Amino acid sequence: MQGVHELSGLVERVLQSETFRNAPSSRRLLRYLADRSVAGEADQLKEYTIGVDAFGKGADYNPRTDSTVRIQIGRLRQKLAEYYRDEGKNDAAVVDLPKGRFSLTSAARDTVPADLPGMETTVDSPAEIEVALQPNRWRTVALAVGGLCLLLFAYSLYAFVRLRSIQVAAGPWSPELTELWQPLIGSSRPLAIAVGDPLFLQFENRALYRELSKEKADDLMNSPHFRAVNEALGGLATRPVHYYSAVGEVTAAFLLGQRLGPYQKNMSVVRSSQLQWDQLAASNVLLIGPPRFFVDKLGSMPVSLEITEVTDGFVNLHPQAGEPSLFKYRDPPGFITEDGEACVLVTHAAGPEGKTDIETFASNSTFARAGAINAFTDPAFAATLTGKMRGASGRIPQYFQVLLKVKYKGGVPTETSYILHRELRRH
User: Which position among 71, 116, 163, 178 has the lowest Cβ density within 10 Å, counted as fewest Cβ atoms?
Assistant: First the structure.
């Protein structure tokens, strides 16, 4: 174990890193815990004290009903693990926040606890605030939620295998495919593929909870539905996680790597929740996921959108003769099923400063998103699509939106058809 002066130096190094630069809450908590650890006071800290001193909670703060501190402790552990996986991978010593404690420790790299750098971390609430799950009439709710998680996991494996069937040979790269993809594969800038990773709340590693309309932790935790489930489970500690991605995104990322890889060597995959504005300004970015994952970013781009998202579908802002103004997300509506059809909106826009390109494949069906990626990388479909998009100049627009319809059976995309397209104008 190293001295307090060395701990202070290690913490300061971490605080100056890029990993922590854009994480103000984690920076504040790390500095607070470091100060208390150096002063020898961290072992006496309580969750209430941290909430009041570090996060400005009022005197009426109740850790049993407000899990802010537990969430931030979890995020801090994740940030430390991220730092030591990347920027700090060559550091001789590391800072650790052991589970169940609020006291920071430091250790030489060769004696680092196995669960810190580069490893998945889980958050356990401190021993003094653990809440035992009391037997009551809601115990069946816990069993049902846990069972649902197992079913979802099994279904994801099954659906992924089924979706692999669309990985047929796409044929040689064609001039039309080059026309569609040139801004992303013909650029010297790197291409980042941002895969949607939805927000869940984790109940002390026992169950997961999600609401499809909420992607911010505060919104989800303030939901009356979440509060009802949390109460039924006995008030377990929770934390937000972004561990999972839909099967269509996994398949889409595989297809993109398979089909674009020979033409764009500088590709990477990032989680949508981790996508930063500086990446959008420095790299070309391809985003795959539900529309709400990207609507805030697209709305800030220097183009005027012609098709936008509303609660139940895509709005055609300037319908032409015979065109409806609203295209429903899915048919049939309601529950996501393996059989049906869905709309996919493909948007190609300029990046924040107009120096990069951004392309999104947005739909409320994971199967449809995979089908759209498959179609956009297929020579035959590309020939049909570019023929419809070419204007008087004989070229497709620099920036555009294309609305597609994808049919799927048993979770496998079977047919993709063109609905309409719009040219986008720079502001």
Answer: 178
Q: What CA–CA distance (Å, rounded) separates 193 from 287? A: 6
Nearest to 357 by CA among 196, 192, 183, 188: 183
Secondary structure class of 356 (helix, strand, coil): coil
pLDDT digit string (tens) for 182-229? 999 988 899 999 998 888 988 876 788 888 778 888 888 888 988 888
Axis-axis angle for helices 4-15, 24-38 (nearest 10): 170
Residues 413 and 298 grouped into a single domain: yes
Distance CA 230, CA 224 (A): 10
> Are residues 72 and 190 located together in one domain of the fold?
no
Cis before 332? omega within 30: yes
Would residue 161 count as lying in a domain?
Answer: no
In this predicted structure, what is the pLDDT of residue 310? 83
Cβ atoms < 10 Å from Cβ of 2:
14
Same structural domain for residues 143 and 271?
no
Nearest alpha-carbon partner for 286 in 407, 372, 378, 209? 372
- What are the tens digits of pLDDT across the range 37-77? 888 888 888 888 898 888 888 888 888 878 888 888 888 98
Tell me whether strands 238-241 and 105-108 are parallel, antiparallel or unpaired: unpaired
122 pLDDT higher than 60: no
In a domain, 134, yes or no: no
The predicted model gives 20-39 an average pLDDT of: 86
Distance CA 406, CA 365 (A): 9
| CB-CB contact of 378 with 344 (8 Å) | no
pLDDT in tens, 33-46: 988 888 888 888 88
Contact 38, 25 (CB under 8 A): no
Which 3 state secondary structure label does DSSP give 181? Answer: helix
Residue 54 domain boundaries: 4-129
**Residues 17 and 66 reside in one and the same domain:** yes
State pTM to two decimals: 0.61
